[in-house]
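Honest question from a wet-lab person: if I give you the sequences of every part of a complex, can you actually get the arrangement of the whole thing, not just the pieces? Trying it with mine:
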Amino acid sequence: KQEVTQIPAALSVPEGENLVLNCSFTDSAIYNLQWFRQDPGKGLTSLLLIQSSQREQTSGRLNASLDKSSGRSTLYIAASQPGDSATYLCAVVTGTASKLTFGTGTRLQVTL
Amino acid sequence: NAGVMQNPRHLVRRRGQEARLRCSPMKGHSHVYWYRQLPEEGLKFMVYLQKENIIDESGMPKERFSAEFPKEGPSILRIQQVVRGDSAAYFCASSRQGTNTGELFFGEGSRLTVL
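Yes, you can. This is the full assembly:
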């Protein structure tokens, strides 16, 4: 059974700092991994999708890497801003399953 | 291009009543997924549907819950005889292809409160 863990559970950083969020999964037989952002009381916004054959994806100040063999992904946020404050979720699709398995998220606060 | 539309955004029901949650996928998307987020917990998969077919309902409780995605109209998640433990945010997502390759897009969620 796939399990997804995100560390740390919460993180507070000053504006301008670069930061890394971690995601690990127990079953490396994944099809893809997706990073989402969730604001309080809101839905999920897709940030980056990495297929199993890819090593990384970039969008603006965000860079996500994938090391499938070790069961890890990182989300790198450059030059953080207060507007980046949200909960960041990673999720994987495993084997023949048609569903995402989510981590419990990292709650990020970027302070002025 | 409108995103995934869910309604109602908030729903209050008394124990024993029925709750119906609706989801219209993004234009061009024929794959719909329902997830539930209990307070202080992560999102859990419930059901995956393609037009008129349930593909995977392994995350659905065996009783009181049902889902459909008719040929015309939105997908519906129906909860009969609601109990307090059903209080949660219910999210719908859609994709153009199945999740094995496709990116998933989520709606804003429907927040059910059972009194």
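Two things worth pointing out. The mean pLDDT of chain B is 92. The CA atoms of residues 5 and 101 of chain B lie 22 Å apart.
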